[in-house]
Specification:
Largest sheet: none
CATH superfamily: MazG-like
Order of helices and strands: HHHH
Number of domains: 1
CATH class: Mainly Alpha
Length: about 100
C-alpha cells in the first residue's frame, strides 16, 4: 500500500498534470474552478441520494466523485494562492478551539 497522500504532494502533481494534459491553472478563473468543484460535489450528492433511496450504488463510486471534488478544490486553492493543507489545519483547529476540543492538527 502506498504511503498516505499529503496536500503538498497533491498540489505539485495536480498542477503539473493540469498543465500537461489540459491547460495552465491560470486559464480558468476562480469561478470556473469553483463551478468544477460544485459539479463534482453535486455528482457525489446525487449518488448519495440514490443510495439513500435504496439503489445499489457502490460506495467506491461515491468515493471517486468525492476524490474529484478534492482534486478540483486543490486546483481552486492553487489558483487563488491558498495552501489547502494549511487552510484545513487552521480551520480544524479554529473549530476545536471554539468548541473546546483538545483535538488539533
Amino acid at each position: 500500500m502506498p504511503p498516505a497522500l499529503d496536500f503538498d504532494e497533491l498540489r505539485i502533481a495536480n498542477e503539473q498534470r493540469c498543465a500537461e494534459l489540459f491547460h495552465p491553472i491560470e486559464d480558468w478563473s476562480p469561478t470556473d474552478w469553483g463551478c468544477a468543484v460544485a459539479g463534482e460535489v453535486g455528482e457525489a450528492c446525487n449518488l448519495i441520494k440514490k443510495l439513500r433511496r435504496g439503489e445499489a450504488i457502490p460506495v467506491e463510486e461515491i468515493g471517486k466523485e468525492l476524490a474529484d471534488s478534492v482534486i478540483y478544490m486543490d486546483l481552486l486553492c492553487t489558483r487563488l494562492g491558498i495552501d489547502l493543507g494549511e487552510a484545513v489545519r487552521s480551520k480544524f483547529n479554529e473549530i476545536s478551539d471554539r468548541r473546546g476540543s483538545k483535538v488539533k492538527l
